[in-house]
Amino acid sequence: MIDIQQVTKEFSGKIAVENLSLTVDDGKIFGFLGPNGAGKSTTIKLITGILPIEQGKITINGFDITEHPLEAKKRIGYVPDRSDVFLRLKGIEYLNFIADVYDVPTDIRKKRIEYYAKSFGIYESLNDHILTYSHGMRQKIVISGVLLHEPEVWILDEPLTGLDPKSSYTLKEMMREHANKGNIVFFSTHVLEVVEQLCDEVAIINNGHIEFLGNMSEMKQQFQDEDNLEKVFLELTQNE
């Protein structure tokens, strides 16, 4: 479970997230939507411990991200919105480095590296430097690294950006399978069709506040005059 209680984050006098509370239960794919600058990435960086929490509390499967950061982070797999990392390493060096960080045994990591690299079509490029990879390939190597230690909670910031249709389909299938095992997939996206297709629950954030929180059926009941998520999203964020 991801439990966010009354979290506020301020930058140079400007409030990015204000008194935000949110709970994501196990077994869910949770979509996190909002226009640029709404507080999506700030919230995700607070959940993952990248940004310190000034007010409020966040727990990941019972571990407070501030009081027990290592225990909480062991349970997280985080794909950032930018994949330009460790560019001077070869793909295989990067994956082995990530596996070392999370203490993935040698025999297990070898099987997982092969599985994910082949699933995303980058197996033949693992001995090339990440610097030579296309944007899409860099996204794939980052996703592969994130999944190596089989984290219980996936936190994905725009994970489908740059992926080709086959890899995008593969990742969406993995997301569904992960949630079906009783785990959590928390992801932000601008692709509203993916939200309608995949998500069990959705939150729409605007100006640091949650404007809607619930499942697709509840959204349709609340906005009976709107026939799709795009119209609801535009209505909720019309002042942006």
Count up the helices.
9
CATH fold node name of the domain at 1-75 and 153-159 and 190-240: Rossmann fold
Poorly predicted regions: none
Q: Would you tell me the structural class of the helices and strands? A: alpha/beta
Report the mean per-residue pLDDT as an integer: 91
Strand order of the largest sheet: 6-7-8-3-9-10
CATH superfamily of the domain at 1-75 and 153-159 and 190-240: P-loop containing nucleotide triphosphate hydrolases
Q: How many DSSP-defined strands?
A: 10
Termini gap: 31 Å
* CATH arch. level architecture of the domain at 1-75 and 153-159 and 190-240: 3-Layer(aba) Sandwich
- Note the beta-strand portion: 25-35%
What is the succession of H and E elements? EEEHEEHEHHHEHEHEEHH
Helical proportion, percent range: 25-40%
CATH class of the domain at 1-75 and 153-159 and 190-240: Alpha Beta
Assembly state (oligomeric)? single chain
